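Suppose a colleague, Dr. K., hands you the sequence of a protein chain of 282 amino acids and asks what its three-dimensional shape might be. Before reaching for any lab equipment, you can write down a predicted structure in token form. Begin with the sequence itself:
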Amino acid sequence: MDGVSAVRAYTLIAVLALLAGGWMLNEAPTQEIEDDKQFLSGDTDALPASTEEQGGDDDSPELRRGGGEEESDGFAYDLPTSLVAGGGAALGSLALGSFLFEAMRVTVLIALATPLLARMKANRDDMLTRGRILGYLEANAGIHFSALRDALGLANGVSAYHLHTLEGQGEVISWRDGKLRRYAVSSLTKEELSRIRNPIAGTRLAILEVLSDSGQLGLKGSEIRTKLQISRQLLSHHLSELRSSELVEAASDSRRPNWRLSSVGLAALINSRDVARLEAAG
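The predicted structure, expressed as tokens, is then:
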């Protein structure tokens, strides 16, 4: 899945920055304590010699290094602090993105939880769980991650792990839909997949709902416009698109026929209702 390797690399760099920064912060006080012990014990050989001990006279020019000792110490503390802050901010951004966007949450779960779960030996429970997921996706193609997880009563990491495994085996496909990630079995035809990936919504869904109540007799365009309170031009546009997709059909051969749902349109409407119901429940 796209982004999994990037999340793993991003997380690894953040963790390394935290570890390096923490180690450097711990080392700095330790070094100061050692220097103080040497000074108190009289072991001044290891400490820098003073100006007088080096035999320099008062008139000798001082060698000034840019920044001096204080700037050097400041740099020593700024670097580990920056590493810790940067690592924490990177991990925090992953956590925030996972909270706001389901698609990112799935990617993070797969990137971080899957390697841990993959180390566990596959057993009968794993096979049963994947069978449940496949069966559910066959009946509810296009359902998104959270609704699937809640419907089957699975944990985030377990759901992501098994879906990732099934997708790697070619039994499941997924795609991003805004903030969501949707799943379906890979055995779907191109036509079925096209309808699922481009669900009927808005005015077109409302037209299908109105026509579903009219049975085989259908409704005239003027009747549909009255029920939905839309203009003739807008209705004409949507009916043309629905007819091109074979979702509606003419009930007769007259010049201005009644319109009714086709068998394909009825199946698409039922699927849209089922997915909406499941996702609302989730």
